[in-house]
Amino acid sequence: MTANTSAMRDLLRATSAGIAAIDPGDTHGVKRRKAGERLVGLHAELAELQERLWAEQRRAVLVVLQGMDTSGKDGTVAHVMGGLDPQGVHVHAFKEPTPQELRHDFLWRVRRQAPGPGVVGIFNRSHYEDVLIARVQRLAPPAEIERRYGAINRFEAGLAAGGVRVLKVFLHISFEEQRERLVERLEDPSKHWKFDPADVDKRAQWDEYQAAYELAVDRCSTAEAPWYVVPADAKWFRNYAISRLLVETLREMDPRYPQPALDVPGLLARLRPAQLTQ
User: Fold this and answer.
1) By three-state DSSP, how is residue 151 classified?
2) Where are the domains of the chain?
3) pTM of the model as a whole
4) Domain 8-253, what fold?
5) Quick one: 189 exposed, middle or buried, by C-beta within 10 A (0-12, 13-18, 19+)?
6) Tens digit of pLDDT per residue, the chain (278 long)?
7) Are 88 and 120 spatial neighbours (Cβ–Cβ below 8 Å)?
């Protein structure tokens, strides 16, 4: 089964086999040229579906992007979401909690960024940092980390019940591909602003982070909010796959334009130029 013959959501949905069983370089039989050709149509359809979602003003979509450093979270926002109407998009990147945020439960700041009706929300990193970095760096007691998996599932179920479709994407990059992207950033002065020396330190804990992701995906992939594992070594496939995931999700939601009661003939008559009389 390839991405040419199957729904991308079926192909990339996380399974019990785990992340380790998935090749980060797999493109599922899709050729780069074909993907580029199809992206034109996908992005046009995505723009129309987003307009319908915004016009409907009843439901929302939340795209959660997670992955190791350099896996392409920023690139996904730029290349997949860049063509959307900004008035119906809300992007938020969760960074280290502020002192105010630390005074609350870990989901307090997340709830404040949930998308409202008609909006496509994008979390560039998310509440999952609190069971990923927090687990590897031991920023919270084991019992608290364990509690958070259940809290996340309840939170996402609540979003779904309130009309927010949750689309969670793990950008699966290989150890070697990350090294190459870090080297590329260092060799290009215009990308130095994106380089964090701590990213090199984290490579020493690669296996721990992979285990933390495995656990988070396994514990928090639910019917209401499934995880999708996108092979991300090939940037073009990453963009194609996520575009399809988002389009397939919106197609299923099938947002509709409102149908207000308008006196169309009467309004048109008022707008037409008055006929000159002889």
Assistant:
1) helix
2) 8-253
3) 0.92
4) Rossmann fold (3.40.50)
5) exposed
6) 566 546 999 999 999 999 999 999 999 999 999 999 999 999 999 999 999 999 999 999 999 999 999 999 999 999 999 889 999 999 999 999 999 999 999 999 999 999 999 999 999 999 999 999 999 999 999 999 999 999 999 999 999 999 999 999 999 999 999 999 999 999 999 989 888 888 888 899 999 999 999 999 999 999 999 999 999 999 999 999 999 999 999 999 999 999 999 999 999 999 998 654 34
7) yes
